[in-house]
Write a structure and sequence with these properties.
2 domains, about 10% strand, Arc Repressor Mutant, subunit A, about 140 residues, three-stranded antiparallel sheet, alpha+beta
Length: about 140
Amino acid sequence: MAKVVLSKTEHPHIVRHPHICGGSPIIRGTRITVRLLATLIRGGATPEEIIRAYPQLELAQVYDALSYYFDHRAEIDREIEENKLSTVMRRHNLRLISHPTGGFGRLVTEEEFAKLKADEKRRAYTWDNLPKGLKV
């Protein structure tokens, strides 16, 4: 079996690996994607807040990931859009069953949905009727 190696990028802390996070650019030695950090920054987080939330990261890694994002903005913005909950639900024809006491719940296929009890079916959302707060 051939050994798969990391694909280096022009950014020292950013690599790609075809079997990690679908080949998306990640911070070396982690499974943290550039897409995640770009999403956090776009949502108003600061690099300092990110390293508090992800203490395994160093500030230089966060700034390098953000630099990668700005150098490859169209690609990463496309990844962000493709990985939104509503987009994934639409692509795979999934439903979100909300948890009865609140919280996120779980995703199910149409086949699984057909087997659910009526009370669970009433708590189901499709990609086009997700509550506004979940359309991210």
